[in-house]
Amino acid sequence: MAENFYQRLIDKYEPMTEAAFLTLVAVRKPIKSEDIPAKIAELTHNKLQLGLGTLFTNLHAMTKDYLMTERVDENDVHTYEITGSGESVLVAERDRLRLLSGIIEAEQL
Predict the structure, then answer these.
(1) Residue 17 and residue 85: Cα distance in Å, rounded?
(2) Which InterPro entries does the UniProt entry name for this protein (predicted)?
(3) H helix or E strand, kind and range, residue 70
(4) β-strand 78-82 against 68-72: which pairing, if any?
(5) For 57-87, how does the pLDDT look when each residue is reduced to its tens digit (9 = 90+)?
């Protein structure tokens, strides 16, 4: 049953948008919502940025789909962290991107 659940999530998110991919990578360790844009800038060497609307849409959807957890402390600080389901979706997307990268190399693009 768990395998079926993971596959449904993978099917829903694959192929993953850049915004969704970067959001999931950013929350692989617990991170406050206010720190996520800087983490994404760091990951992309300041080449990609997410608008706050896109970021919070992804955070909301992925929390709802159990790809990450959200904790809110007494100061209303939101902290996000990837779940096992989120890691499964991220691994599936990694494998898909590796396939595409292999095609690029093989075709000398």
Answers:
(1) 17
(2) WH-like_DNA-bd_sf, WH_DNA-bd_sf
(3) strand 68-72
(4) antiparallel
(5) 999 999 999 999 999 999 999 999 999 999 9
Q: Are 54 and 8 in contact (CB under 8 A)?
A: no
Residue type, 21: F
Nearest to 100 by CA among 16, 43, 39, 22: 16
* Distance set, CA 1 to CA 5, 8, 29, 91, 93 (Å): 6, 11, 27, 19, 21
What percentage of the chain's residues is helix, strand, coil (to nearest 5)? 60, 10, 25
Do 45 and 87 form a contact (C-beta atoms < 8 A)? no
What are the structural domains of the chain? 2-106 (1.10.10.10)
